[in-house]
Description:
The chain has helices spanning 6-109, 112-117, 155-167, 181-193, and strands spanning 133-135, 149-151. The protein is mainly alpha-helical and 194 residues long. The chain has a domain at 123-193. It is rod-shaped and about 180 Å long.
Amino acid sequence: MKPLHPHQRSLFIGFGIVAVVIIAGGIYFYSRMNTLSSRIDALLASTTASLASTTAALQSNIAQTNTSLSNALSSQQQNLGVIQQQLGGVQSQVGGLSGTVSTIQKLSQIDPELLKKYSKVYFLNDNYVPAHLSEIPSAYEYSDTKQLLFVTQALPYLESMINAASSNGVILYVDSAYRSFAEQAALKGEYTMT
């Protein structure tokens, strides 16, 4: 082998130093990369563990919330059922009361003497005459021999019934209407004799 020229030798030494620096830099870079990679792995493992723990806690909270909401919904449905039952009872009572009020209103408009007629305690006396009587129009009377009286509040319904029958080809006349106590007693006496 031939000896190196001094220039070549310094170039060779320079390349050697560069190579050593590059290798040393590579080793340092590799070492830093390993350290950084270890730190990233540790951070990733820590984050994964934390995320798993948080996920488990969230799932547990969601399950507890679902259970609480389910229980609350069930309780509210039971309360609603109770309220609907109570409302049904109240509606029934209101219906009964409105029927009673309606009956009382009707009874308050009826002649008190007439109510006594159907009472088990009171009886009509011999002098009872309904408070409001009207004469039946002669067009509806069977004969002109006597005056026929009818309760004033019911007279329009009687006239309506007779007119409706007439429009259907059925002719109706009134032959007997209100009778006083004396008239009824006399009529009953004639039947008894017969």
